[in-house]
């Protein structure tokens, strides 16, 4: 061992730091809108998806999609638990659930080393909820 971090450890450390930064970026946007999933949730989902994706690429380089594919459905299940239907039939937290699912996708991009795509996607996740709704334009 020549240094503090070697091989896979340094790669994973970089990935987790990026997950922390980008997960915080998306989570702050959600918290500023008083949504139930904020910084911690987005960081955990992103880092978890990143780790599962990284592990799948190392454990079985010939078929890395086997483990990573389960992240998509697993996080979809997590997001589904966040969506609420109120008594007046309005749906709440749909965008937050989508943001959680999207954060997992960003984490997967980081897990396979697509850092620029992950940064652009995170900016996308911060900008999109800020776009005014068409319904507000017609009022």
Walk me through what this model shows.
This protein is mainly α. The protein is 71% helix and 3% strand. The chain is built from 6 helices and 2 strands. It has helices at 7-32, 39-59, 65-80, 94-111, 115-127, 134-137; strands spanning 84-85, 91-92. It has a two-stranded antiparallel sheet. A hairpin with a 5-residue loop joins strand 1 and strand 2. The relative contact order is 0.16. The model has no long low-confidence stretch (mean pLDDT 88).
Overall spatial form? elongated
In the sheet with the most strands, the strands line up as: 1-2
What count of helical segments does DSSP give? 6
Tally of DSSP β-strands: 2
Largest sheet: 2 strands, antiparallel
Q: State the share of residues found in helices, binned by percent.
A: over 70%
Q: How far is it from the N-terminal to the C-terminal residue, by CA?
A: 65 Å
From the alpha carbons, calculate the radius of gyration and give it in angstroms: 17 Å
In short:
The protein contains 6 helices and 2 strands.
Q: Could you give the topology of this structure?
A:
Elements: H1 7-32, H2 39-59, H3 65-80, E1 84-85, E2 91-92, H4 94-111, H5 115-127, H6 134-137
Antiparallel strand pairs: 1-2
Helix pairs in contact: 1-2, 1-4, 1-5, 2-3, 2-4, 3-4, 4-5
